[in-house]
Structures
1.
Amino acid sequence: MSGSTTAPSGVSNLRLPTPTLDAESQSLLQSISAQGGYAYARMAALAVAGDQSAAEAARDMAWEQLHSGPWHSVLPVWRDAYSMACLHVAKFHFAAGEFVEALGALDMGLIMGGMLLRKDLHDSVVFVSSESRKKSLEGSGDSNGEKLVPEVPVDLNEVLKILPCRSLTCRRVEKRSSLSMEGFLRDYFQRDTPVVITNCMAHWPARTKWNNLDYLNAVAGNRTVPVEVGKNYLCTDWKQELVTFSKFLERIRTKKTSSAEPTYLAQHPLFDQINELRDDICIPDYCFVGGGELQSLNAWFGPAGTVTPLHHDPHHNILAQVVGKKYVRLYPSSLQDELYPYSETMLCNSSQVDLDNIDKTEFPKAMELEFMDCILEEGEMLYIPPKWWHYVRSLTMSFSVSFWWSNETDSSSS
């Protein structure tokens, strides 16, 4: 690729404003040089002078540093260096009218980069997305409004054939319509008990927008997201990939991945990355019970058959089912020993028991345990108390949001 970029006619005046980068560039380059990044600093200076190949070389150098060891050992300055290089690369693509490539570079900066230049990255995404939509609208026809998940009832007899043994035979999770804050606090939060809350999401724009293929492609199609490929994270063939959202949608719609290797956008902070989707949801008032604070807001989006294996989480959790249906099974934290958690630190919150195929010889205690379960319908929320073990299977294509929050005691001790 040549060092200079010639913009197409009519877009040569396109420039990305990056005020933080402009103000912090010199100081950041000094910090990078102090860590031995002299070659990076030279390439970054050439990039500012108009050399696109130097910008890409600087990005490659920073990328190598990000992968030089365990993620926690990577110096923060190299994460900021990667953000800087992504902004430089994006500027060249944007000036050339290459909006998809510009968004790809910016997303990589958001996903892998540091915090120093995050506002520039976010603002640049908004800027590029706006120009990209203008261009796409010029040649677009009428939207056909294709739905991702048709309104077809689930056949319970067919569902039971794919669910774990004894599903829907024990205690069902109680369902409460429009549950009051007082009722939630008294009957479930303080008693450490799951509950399904119905009729609580009708006001979310996501309830209609996220089931519309054209809408999702319009607001997120060109964005780069991390996805999981494989049965689940406990399997040896599990891996992660970076793909555009439109490619991900195409995979799960056309089932280009096999049932043994589904593609799943799982536990990703999608709403920090794509503000338009964040605007389509609301933080449930229930998440403020206990006086704590929201810890994370994650997306779970994938085809029917995706499974999150039996595990527990450290925080209060509301799982909001926006599109599609899921089966959820829950075991109280008191049954930890009977569920055989892994001994390795990284997996100590995950059970060795595969509920889809329990090894009776190796895990005899797990066979007859009592549990709670439910089918979580579109428009419902499930409250999962901290440390409750849960297994989740998508019964249809599914788009969910999880809200993790701590109570006041958790916040003060963390």
Note: The two ends are 49 Å apart (CA to CA).
2.
Amino acid sequence: MWDLIPALDCSQLLSLCPSQCKPLLFPITTPDPWVDPPKRTMSDQAFVTLATNDSYAKGAMVLGQSLRNHHTTRKLVALIGPHVAEPCRDALRSIFDEVCVVDVMDSGDAAHLAMMKRPDLGVTFTKLHCWRLTQYSKCVFMDADTLVLSNIDELFEREELSAAPDPGWPDCFNSGVFVFRPSNETHEKLLTFCGENGSFDGGDQGVLNSFFNTWATADISKHLPFIYNLSSIAIYSYLPAFKQYGHGVKVVHFLGKVKPWNYSYDAQKGEVKGQSDPCQLHPDYLLMWWQLYAKAVVPLLQKAYGDTPFSSGFVDDKLHEDVTAQTASSPPPPPPPQVTSAERKQRWEEGQIDYLGADSFDNIERKLNSFLK
């Protein structure tokens, strides 16, 4: 019986099948393992920051580079004041897709009129200019004293006005990082509000919290987790929480009067040199800021300034050696006076914390571990 069955190959068998039964054949392509897939860029969404002088411009450069390093797919926009030097503007253009000069006093519009009424809110009016970036459908504003530690593009899934709680008063949001939708109408309303009501804290945070006054109660989805705006000085107020959740931090915010660029950096030793005031910033994050600044920003500034000298913030090695030699030949300084527990407690309550000495992160952690054992 088997001799009666013809031997057919695959093509002959397929020709006998009804057309609806024949399999669909697709060409198989093997991707080139050496070619990265193209990144999709959201051209109508942007991260926005503000620099009103050369110092904050350096902070903006570090922020922009940290966003680049973590492969953001959004555009980067820097708003700058008229006093930012041209070399700094050139360096910013190397990192940001768009650099916009905002001069409220020369604008001749409602912002100018509001500025005349409330000259104390000059920087605030400049920051509010971000609502005029109507070429973008949604933006995330970030202060120039923030540093991104991982990709945060998921923030664009949030709606206006989304922000993280302020550590000083959690029913207020901190305006260092917030999601917003550019709108000329909202911009006009904010200007009118500023002129009529001012700011309860003298800055943009007071204005924005008063304007978006339902943030605390209306929609919990607009409350960003604290990891998107971690205040570096708040770490010490609740150290066990930082030990528990700190590994997930995405954005560090260097709040306070002393900023990273107010310190200096010894590139040879890889050390940050502190000011005369106690360090208000977490040393690990401060070092991360300076390492990124040294690697990615300083070369841009050197190229932009050319032969013109500028302040890089680096320790002058020769000057440092001279000071060291002079110190070695002079008698050692007297030891610091001993501080009693009562005096230390009073200094803590007054905000005078010796972050680089007795109240350092390591000492506090060691003390907590002794209690938690």
Note: The CA atoms of residues 227 and 249 lie 4 Å apart.
3.
Amino acid sequence: MAMAMVCLSDFEAYAKKYLPKIAWDFFAAGADDCSTRDENILAYKRIHFRPRMLRDVSMMDIRTKLLGTEISFPVGIAPTGFHQLAWPDGEKSTARGTLLTYSTCTLEEISAAAPGSLRWFQLYIHRNRAVSQQLVQQAEALGFQGLVLTADLPYTGKRRDDVRNGFRLPPHMQLKNLEGAFEVCKMNDRSEYGLPPNSLDPSVTWNDIYWLRSLTHLPIIIKGILTKEDAELAVSHGVQGIIVSNHGGRQLDGGPATIDALVEVVEAVQGRVEVYLDGGIRKGSDVLKALALGAKCVFIGRPALWGLAYKVSRLIGHKDESDNFICYHLNWKQYMVLIQQFHSGVTNSSEVHVELDAADV
């Protein structure tokens, strides 16, 4: 009899067992010693609730809104690459979320797989700016509702297992949104991600926000902010949202856990833009802690890939977004019951301001 999958660590264990080692190592990899990757998870354990009792918990509403668009509960899919390494349908099975530039499915395929859902497009800016411009304008034309600029990847972090494994995108997988965008080069001359070497533009600055604004009417969300100084710059340059992120610990080892960085970012923006978070979210209580500290919504990366590896259609990409992420969804509903015990009158996700033990935050 198959083991019941009751929490995300069960899906993680399954994925580790059944994915090819090179694929598992790619998804799991962190930069250098993986300290920041691991700290993203450990930091939640240092945050404690201050529970209150005898509150009416008979009614609850786990919906919230992102930039005015309602979603069924405050968890989305973070931009992660190369989903076909986990499941043949790739990003078509995780279409209700943020689509990465480095997707193994086209923008059109994603749009067809999730009509009517909330979809943001994540962008890396390439040295060939015409490529990035075309992607942005194509995403807007196809109905994507937001543009997510990743700010923390001028160069790829050193992921030791990928180096040891000699990771390269398999020849049968293509970065569909970039096909034909660059000069043809031999497979041996391509980077591990199937592109010509040094394709990303390391000269990107805050002024490029204005360039993006000239290309699109989509709201711009900047991903990779970890300090109050950069949060203030993001607001002053006119972004509509900030994702507190350290790239899952895959870029710079030794930086803060995202839940720790969230506090100063929220304090810096003072409600002028929406603040989201990714990294380390594994339970409904983690979602609650992030929302209590000021996040509007959280995004998950690796757990979505574990779900793909498990091949559960109900886990990701089913007919109704409320069926997505079963473990998070049910666990979050349980913690919404606790919310009302913490704070009288809280009846939905957007009102969460839970008391935490300040000594442990």
Note: The CA atoms of residues 286 and 351 lie 16 Å apart.
